[in-house]
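Need tokens for this chain, all 334 residues.
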Amino acid sequence: MARAPIPRYGIAEWFGNDITTMTPDERQRFGQLAAAQDQTGDISNAPLCPFLSTLVPGARCNKASGVCSIRRFSPGPEGAGTPVPGDKIVTVCPSRFLQPLDGGKSLFVWISEKMLEADNPTVVKETPFLRKVSDSTADDNGDDEGEGKKAGRIDWILVNPTTMDAGELEWCAVETQALYFSGDKMRPEFDAYAAAPSSVLFPVGRRRPDYRSSGPKRLSPQLDVKVPVLRNWGKKVVVVIDRYFYDNMNSLADAYPRARNDQERRDNSDVVWFIVDYDDALNMTASAVIFTTLESSRRALNATEPLSKADFTRNLKQVIDDSSRANKVFKASE
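Here are the structure tokens for all 334 residues:
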């Protein structure tokens, strides 16, 4: 019995547009644009980003080739692709998180209401946080020479504007974490769409969301560096992820299970996770808020646990007995 073809990950949203609702001519035009950007790196002719422009009016897509998110497609007749029903959309561009939530509320207002009890936060982008030790004599006024030596930034800072003239400025740090993918690059998809007007195509390349590169290898070290310092300052770190990312984590433990309200949870937390999801029309929705500690966040991001001794021993024996694994099992000479 022949095996059913395995679905593959391809473009879900392209330059801010759902690929399934675009016309064949639009798909060809975006394919040509993406292929040119991929080849030259020049994004000066990029279209408006519908997500970033909600914060910065007129902002253009700043991600070469413009892929906002990916999803799995099943193969159809004549090379067509059909989205796998019920599969999660995977966010691959951080700007994608800036789409207004269901009801029109912005992501930053949602966070600010929970973290600062303010519904009109001041938003500051990419604030330098770390400074190289060799930069200890840098200009305190933030001149270009000093800024050039800064290493490490906080994606976003939300400030309660009513505290600007108060003794203590109220703010929280926000990190938006999209997912990387591994496997084949997107260029074959761009070329396939650029060749002619077409329906949605079954992906040419084989790729998958790379949770480990995005979570344990990227986000976890960021939290290890930033959270202890901000905790000493009495400030909280917010992490924004999508539901696919969250579903690949271990469970996040509540910072204060007996808390009576969100304020008590917030007061006892180090890291607050804001999880978003997408509806069938690819509109972003608020999914969950989890108040937790740095230690719980580390464990959740690791998403692994040791094998039992019995399982490890059984696997070890299978490797030794498998003649096809000769490149892994050797006899030591005397």
